[in-house]
Amino acid sequence: MSILMWLLVGLVAGALAKVIMPGPDKGGWIMTIVLGIVGAFVGGFVGNLLGIGSAQATGFNVETILTAVGGAIIVLFLFRTFSK
């Protein structure tokens, strides 16, 4: 169940990351949403390591969304940096 929840949260996180970090991306919205899903997993992992988040997505609450958006911003930044 947790993986399915992170996928759903990742869809939202990808869209929010695109709003927070606007700009041209290769792949458009589809790639941003995929990066959001990857970022949700990264955010959950990093948050769990730092003790500020949980690797378990418990639903659409503030902690889960912020963790996923933080991870999505990191992944989107790295994607933009290395795709040039």
UniProtKB/TrEMBL annotation:
One Pfam family cited in the UniProt record for this chain: Transgly_assoc
Membrane topology value: Multi-pass membrane protein
InterPro entries named among the record's database cross-references: Transgly_assoc
Keywords linked to the UniProt accession: Cell membrane, Membrane, Transmembrane, Transmembrane helix
Record flagged with keyword Cell membrane: yes
Origin superkingdom: Bacteria
UniProt keyword annotation of Protein transport present: no
Transmembrane segments: 27-50, 62-82
Record's subcellular location: Cell membrane
A cellular component annotation (GO) from this entry: plasma membrane
PANTHER family membership: UPF0410 PROTEIN YMGE
Record-stated family: Belongs to the UPF0410 family.
Name of this chain's protein: Transglycosylase-associated protein
